[in-house]
Write a structure and sequence with these properties.
By secondary structure, the protein is α+β, with helices and mostly antiparallel strands. Helix content is 33%, strand content 36%. A 5-stranded mixed beta sheet has the order 3-2-1-5-4, with no helix packed on it.
Amino acid sequence: MTQLSTMTQMSIFLLQSHKFSNDNIEATLVCLKCDEVFKKDFPIDLEGQTIQFKCPVCNAVGEADLPYKKIEERQEFEEDFGEIEQENGEEFEDTY
């Protein structure tokens, strides 16, 4: 019963915009409880997942759906990584 009441009290954060970097996702979110807009960084590993966290303004617990990186962006990243690997050869593989 406690889990059900927690679920009904949970808020939803709307994703207004986002930007991918190599390490994280910078999200601009809107809290539906207090209507405040805020930015939050998430690790890139959370891409495409629904995550739960607190609003930094009103402390309401809520969820947000993080987007996936577009296929074109993912391919560009993989191509860039391949070029770096070719330039550095085996030395890069040994380091990482």
